[in-house]
Amino acid sequence: xxxxxxxxxxxxxxxxxxxxxxxxxxxxxxxxxxxxxxxxxxxxxxxxxxxxxxxxxxxxxxxxxxxxxxxxxxxxxxxxxxxxxxxxxxxxxxxxxxxxxxxxxxxxxxxxxxxxxxxxxxxxxxxxxxxxxxxxxxxxxxxxxxxxxxxxxxxxxxxxxxxxxxxxxxxxxxxxxxxxxxxxxxxxxxxxxxxxxxxxxxxxxxxxxxxxxxxxxxxxxxxxxxxxxxxxxxxxxxxxxxxxxxxxxxxxxxxxxxxxxxxxxxxxxxxxxxxxxxxxxxxxxxxxxxxxxxxxxxxxxxxxxxxxxxxxxxxxxxxxxxxxxxxxxxxxxxxxxxxxxxxxxxxxxxxxxxxxxxxxxxxxxxxxxxxxxxxxxxxxxxxxxxxxxxxxxxxxxxxxxxxxxxxxxxxxx
Length: 413
Ligand code: 8QM
Fold this sequence. Notes:
Blueprint: E1 7-8, E2 22-23, H1 32-36, H2 39-48, E3 52-54, E4 59-62, H3 65-72, E5 78-79, H4 108-119, H5 122-146, E6 148-150, H6 151-168, H7 178-188, H8 194-201, H9 204-213, H10 224-233, H11 241-252, H12 255-270, H13 272-280, H14 285-296, E7 301-306, E8 310-312, E9 315-317, E10 322-326, H15 327-330, H16 365-382, E11 383-388, E12 393-395, E13 402-405, E14 407-412
Parallel strand pairs: 4-10
Antiparallel strand pairs: 1-2, 3-4, 5-7, 6-14, 7-10, 8-9, 11-14, 12-13
Helix pairs in contact: 5-6, 5-16, 6-12, 7-8, 10-11, 12-14, 12-16, 13-16, 14-16
The structure holds 4-cyclopropylbenzoic acid.
The site of 4-cyclopropylbenzoic acid has 9 residues, from helix 11.
């Protein structure tokens, strides 16, 4: 199934003399079989070589930490403006107008990044922190009163939906489009498999909702959305750019934290010693969340496109090739991490690539960490035990790793 058996020499007319050929690995990282248990394939991809070729989708891939980190930190050679999914925007029409931040390169990226960076800054976190912490405590109190709940629907989804749309300044009506819209966004980064095609076919109502809510008149004063539109008045961005940057928040701001929180709860439910350590020291909440991001890597993969002929780990790759980065494999590479398959809430997590790395590294990471810290601290203070009490069901998505259902029973401390 996974055989580093044959070779390709890139699209080079001649392989550079002395360079060994690029191993071909027969694995489909966008199949349900892979989603169920990606770890044996991650290991095979890392062990096959610093760069491999996936015949199934005709792309190169990197799965070792060093190469994933190197690709992320050379954005001029490995560009984002041709799309960060499999589709090459130089050859195919994108399914929606490209993101002005995710799917952009410097210098265009620099200006839009600065705007979102400022809207999601440490100073802004200070203003919203109490609301996020209070909502987490209220949520845990209500779940404790029920006892048996679904950690996905009732916690990992419900908590972000109770704080983030308000923080953006969205009206109540229509919020049920937010998760389906994000589902399309993350499936669309994948190859043209059934997940992607079906998601895009059904996306129209969700796209219409998002486009309308991104307009200035639909965003409450004081929220992230209004703050983005205020940058038009300051001259930082145009009137046409503002709604597109609000769209980025609605695309990337919810399903990511849903799956980050889901990962953290799933870890704490499976590893009772780590849960005990968190309970005895709730100030570990922020690192316990960060370690769950490393351990599960809710955003599993992203692509780049080469802008010139380049050497990756001693192998030549031509201009115009898609490179798939396995963030989840890099985050468990034994070359970089001691005991990588252990969830350890006191691990030094810095350097993990679960939020990416370099100029595109998650601009919303402070919001994500605020949600994670608030929720895990509330759990640590109020809950004695988290027991898995029903069948764990996986959710299949081309980019996001997470669960469909995690039945748990909570007992109060
Ligand atoms: C993924 O639309 C966007 O700008 C956007 C969409 C998805 C992401 C980021 C940005 C990485 C979380």
